[in-house]
């Protein structure tokens, strides 16, 4: 997990604990700061070193000091003190689905309930019946939540889990005798957060694979090792399950361990109705295995076209696959560039060259750097290098210079070839629409709007209506709802006929343009097709 994500998680924890204590205003302040930090295009350490913490929306003097404590000491004493003031059982209650800090406070203050076991006893004794807000259905949900237990760990943002998965796959290819290797599970479905990683491989020696895997530098604990499966914990706390499967079963195992649970239940039901059985080893009829080598075989055996992993949620994809009318989701080769590439203020010409070279390797047709107005711009050396590539008629992507402006701001850069609207801090959709002369291509940073944002279906609907009236698109980036649309927001936007822009959101040397693939996964999860993206043609091209 990145520094930004870890810090944001702690600030949300502080907000929850303050909610539990009955604080009225502080929790909202900490949550706003957490959301802003999670959405930062820059590393919070770099911003602290430049003295820019107070420029982060929602970060005042008190929170800025706590951020500095965390960056200096690795912990925040205020958070630890709050945690010690709250019984451990109450903290467990807060993590139960459907509870949260405010409901946990009610349990504590009104019923004297200090943990899941006491909640279960109170439900069985009928103590919640008749209490305001606890109808029969709510009580049943609480009973189910207590029976299921608290989650085993915090889910990891997709962008951070992706990096861990990439590093593990690269290391396994280099150090273990693996043949096929794919990361399955929620990461392959491109869920916005990932609970754990599931890696499937084929190999002639499971023991050699496990020995190499457990010896990797990032592995901090071995939880389990069996004949075909090893479970480890990697640095940062993420659990990784590595399975070695037979080549004849690889497709079936990949389909099974990719999920989702709802999709797989529907698939197994369909197979049963056809006199077949599907499991992680294959598709069988009686004693005969009829499919399993590839996922295409598995779906074909039950009369379905191949279903992309991103949309396996039992939300209509099976019915469309049966009819042969699944949409053709946007593919990597159909994205010809990125129009929203940020550089840090201190970036020099070498950073421009590096990103342009990466765009060359990706086969892009264009690369759009953006400068901001207000409050700042790029370093002159970087701007000069961008201008150099704009003028050079060399093979490779055409380099563009765009402008990112707050809504309503005057156009500042006369040389900008296009404009992007930055919605950071905009509390609600503006009532006015841009003029035809200054109309931006799309709006970015929707996820850090302070109200009526993509956080709720109703809030997002208002933004989509505004985008439709303004005739501009909305953006999805590798952080999903942390900075733009999440996958559900993409689907709602696409359904409304609004185009999307898919961005890598690059800001510094540690990032790269390939992060656009993460954003692409979120877009595909939202059923985006190539004709709905703004990444296919240059601005102003027919």
Low-confidence stretches: 449-455
- Indicate the overall shape: globular
Mind describing the biggest β-sheet?
7 strands, parallel
Number of strands: 17
Briefly note the structural class of the backbone: alpha/beta
| Overall tally of domains | 4
Q: What CATH architecture of the largest domain would you give?
A: Alpha-Beta Barrel
CATH top-level class of the largest domain: Alpha Beta
CATH homologous superfamily caption of the largest domain: Metal-dependent hydrolases
Give the DSSP E fraction (strand runs of 2 or more residues): 15-25%
Average pLDDT confidence is: 85
Number of DSSP helical runs? 21
First-last Cα distance: 42 Å
Q: Per CATH, what is the topology of the largest domain? A: TIM Barrel
The largest beta-sheet arranges its strands as 11-12-13-14-15-16-17
Calculate Rg over CA atoms.
Answer: 25 Å
Brief account:
This protein has 542 residues and is of the alpha/beta class.
What is the fold's blueprint, element by element?
Layout: H1 3-20, H2 26-38, H3 44-49, H4 61-73, H5 77-85, H6 88-94, H7 100-111, H8 116-124, H9 136-148, E1 156-157, H10 158-175, E2 178-183, H11 185-188, E3 193-194, E4 196-203, H12 206-214, E5 219-225, E6 229-234, E7 239-244, H13 250-258, H14 261-273, E8 277-279, E9 282-285, E10 288-291, H15 295-301, H16 317-323, E11 337-341, H17 349-362, E12 366-373, H18 380-391, E13 398-406, E14 419-422, E15 442-444, H19 457-470, E16 473-476, H20 487-495, E17 500-502, H21 516-525
Parallel strand pairs: 4-7, 11-12, 12-13, 13-14, 14-15, 15-16, 16-17
Antiparallel strand pairs: 1-3, 2-4, 5-6, 6-7, 8-9, 9-10
Helix pairs in contact: 1-2, 1-5, 1-7, 6-7, 8-9, 13-15, 17-18, 20-21
């Amino acid at each position: 997990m990145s520094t930004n994500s870890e810090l944001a998680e702690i600030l949300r924890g502080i907000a929850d604990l303050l909610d539990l204590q009955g604080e009225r205003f502080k929790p909202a302040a900490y949550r706003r700061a957490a959301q802003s930090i999670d959405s930062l295009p820059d590393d919070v350490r770099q911003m602290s070193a430049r003295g820019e913490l107070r420029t982060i929306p929602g970060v005042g003097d008190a929170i800025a000091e706590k951020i500095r404590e965390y960056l200096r000491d690795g912990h925040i004493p205020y958070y630890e003190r709050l945690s010690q003031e709250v019984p451990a059982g109450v903290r467990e209650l807060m993590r139960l689905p459907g509870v949260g800090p405010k409901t946990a406070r009610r349990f504590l203050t009104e019923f004297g309930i200090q943990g899941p076991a006491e909640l279960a006893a109170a439900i069985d004794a009928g103590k919640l019946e008749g209490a305001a807000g606890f109808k029969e259905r709510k009580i049943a949900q609480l009973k189910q939540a207590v029976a299921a237990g608290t989650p085993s760990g915090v889910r990891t943002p997709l962008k951070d889990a992706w990096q861990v998965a990439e590093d593990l796959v690269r290391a396994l290819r280099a150090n273990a005798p693996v043949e096929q290797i794919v990361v399955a599970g929620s990461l392959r479905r491109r869920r916005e957060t990932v609970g754990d990683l599931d890696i499937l491989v084929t190999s002639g020696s499971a023991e050699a694979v496990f020995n190499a895997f457990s010896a990797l530098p990032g592995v901090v604990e071995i939880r389990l090792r069996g004949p075909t499966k090893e479970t480890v914990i990697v640095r940062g706390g993420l659990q990784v399950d590595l399975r070695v499967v037979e080549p004849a079963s690889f497709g079936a195992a990949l389909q099974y361990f990719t999920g989702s649970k709802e999709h797989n239940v529907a698939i197994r039901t369909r197979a049963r109705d056809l006199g077949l059985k599907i499991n992680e080893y294959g598709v069988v009829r009686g004693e005969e295995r009829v499919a399993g080598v590839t996922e295409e075989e598995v779906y074909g055996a039950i009369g379905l076209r191949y279903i992309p992993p991103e949309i396996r949620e039992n939300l209509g994809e099976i019915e469309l696959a049966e009819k042969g009318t699944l949409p053709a989701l946007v593919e990597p080769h159909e994205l010809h560039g990125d129009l929203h590439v940020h550089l840090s203020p201190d970036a020099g010409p070498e950073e421009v060259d590096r990103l342009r070279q990466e765009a060359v390797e990706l086969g892009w047709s264009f690369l759009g750097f953006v400068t901001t107005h207000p409050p700042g711009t790029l370093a002159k050396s970087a701007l000069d290098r961008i201008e150099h590539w704009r003028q050079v008629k060399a093979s490779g992507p055409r380099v563009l210079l765009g402008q990112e402006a707050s809504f309503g701001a005057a156009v500042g850069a006369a040389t900008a070839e296009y404009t992007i609207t930055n919605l950071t801090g905009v509390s609600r959709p503006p009532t006015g629409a841009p003029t035809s002369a200054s109309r931006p291509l799309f709006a970015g940073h929707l996820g850090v709007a302070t109200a009526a944002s993509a956080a709720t279906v109703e809030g997002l609907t208002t933004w989509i209506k505004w985008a439709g009236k303004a005739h501009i698109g909305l953006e999805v980036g590798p952080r999903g709802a942390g900075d733009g649309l999440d996958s559900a927001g993409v689907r709602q936007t696409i359904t409304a006929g609004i185009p999307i822009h898919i961005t890598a959101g690059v800001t510094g040397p540690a990032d790269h343009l390939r992060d656009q693939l993460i954003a692409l996964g979120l877009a595909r999860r939202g059923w985006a097709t190539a004709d709905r993206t703004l990444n296919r043609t240059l601005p102003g091209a027919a």
